[in-house]
Every structure is written in C-alpha cells, then in structure tokens.
Design a protein that fits this description.
- By secondary structure, this protein is of the alpha+beta class.
- It is 22% helix and 25% strand.
- The strands form two sheets. Strands 1-2-3-10-5-8 form a six-stranded antiparallel beta sheet.
- A hairpin with an 8-residue loop joins strand 1 and strand 2.
- About 4% of the residues have low confidence.
- Bound molecules: 2-oxoglutaric acid (AKG) and fe (ii) ion (FE2).
Length: 199
C-alpha cells in the first residue's frame, strides 16, 4: 500500500506526517476509527484495494469492541460508575519506520508516555525496536510476539486510578536496517462534538 501526502480532505486530527531528518517515522493517522467517512478517506489515502479496505474495517471494528470491553472492565474495577465510552474517539496511527543500515542506533520514536486512556499496539512481528522503561529507569527491549497485541495504559488511566495503573514510558530505536511497521490504536478523550467530524 502507498501513502499519499494528501491529508486535506481528512477530518481534523487525521492525516499523514512525512518523516523529518530527526524523526524517521512516517505516521498516517485517523482521528476516529468508528467514523465510516473517516475510514473511507483513510483507505483512499492508502490506495487500499477492496480486500485491504474490508480488512481495515474489520480490524477497526474488532479493536473498538476490545476497547469497549477493556475500558468498562477497568472503570468497573476502579469503582467508577456510569461512564459510557461509546462516543470516545478511537484513533488509528499506522507507523512506518524508514529504518536503513545507516539509521541503526537512532531513534524512531523518542521516549514518551501515551497521552490518552489505553493503547492497543500491534507491533512489527519481524523487526524489533520497541523498548519500555523498567522501575530502575532503564530501557529494556520488548521482543515482538507473533499473533499478539500489546496494551499500554495512558496518562488518563494513571490519573483516573490515582497512580494504581502506570503509564509506562516507551520508545522505538532502530536495531535492524529494515522498514518497520506498527499499528497503534488509542482510545482518546472526546475533545469536540463527534457529529462535527463524522456526519
Ligand atoms: O511503533 C511502536 O512500536 C510504538 C509506537 C508508539 O509508541 C506510539 O505510536 O505511541
Ligand atoms: Fe506510544
């Protein structure tokens, strides 16, 4: 699939970010995977075939269902009642890391915590690079596990749980000179009326 540098017809919070000399990741972002109009624009940007489009739509529906299940269980576990996560936007971020033998040792994504509630990460099964910070403040490599998803707690979950859940710091480092891809899905806090972006 090809990415086109044409983000203007996308809803706000979506679009393509070209790599810069300092940042060798090219993300393509969709603000809300539950918005059919947004998904269609996203697939058009990728020049997705009908089969790829169907796969992306099925993946988005499955991730959204997983988000609903996990957010309800977490909020119930924290004793937070009467919160509906239904209207919360679920963002897709398709990351393509332009790793080459020359970029080995450089940073793909600098150290950060995820800002929102939860992240579901589908990591590259063949090209490692993700590292998480342990309790001693050292970064340790996360080996990719085929057929598995990785779940990260975001800043909002740490705040809601008064620190019982940790928003672990992580980063991506180029370890192999090969293109790396990942799909990060985020359930975000709703910032504006979704009807204005997904009519
Ligand atoms: O590509 C990865 O493995 C991690 C990406 C990430 O941390 C992010 O998009 O927030
Ligand atoms: Fe992240």
């Amino acid at each position: 699939m090809k990415k086109r540098n044409k983000g203007n017809n996308m809803v706000p919070g979506s679009g393509y970010q070209p790599p810069t000399p300092n940042l060798i990741v090219e993300p393509l972002i969709l603000y809300d995977m539950t918005c059919p109009k947004g998904i269609h624009a996203f697939c058009a940007q990728l020049d997705a075939s009908p089969f790829q489009r169907e796969t992306i739509m099925k993946y988005a529906a499955a991730i959204h269902e997983l988000f609903m299940d996990m957010t309800h269980k977490i909020s119930e576990g924290l004793g937070i009642k009467n919160v509906s996560f239904e209207g919360w936007p679920c963002q897709f971020r398709f990351n393509k890391y332009c790793f080459t033998p020359e970029t080995i040792g450089s940073t793909g994504v600098p150290s950060h915590t995820d800002t929102y509630f939860l992240t579901i990460l589908q990591d590259d099964e063949n090209v490692n690079g993700l590292e998480v910070m342990n309790k001693s403040g050292q970064f340790v490599a996360v080996e990719s596990w085929p057929n598995s998803l990785l779940v990260n707690m975001g800043d909002v979950t740490k705040a809601w749980s008064n620190g019982r859940f940790n928003n672990v710091k992580h980063r991506v480092i180029c370890k192999q000179g090969k293109t790396r891809v990942s799909i990060a899905s985020f359930i975000r806090i709703q910032l504006w009326n979704p009807t204005s972006t997904c009519g």
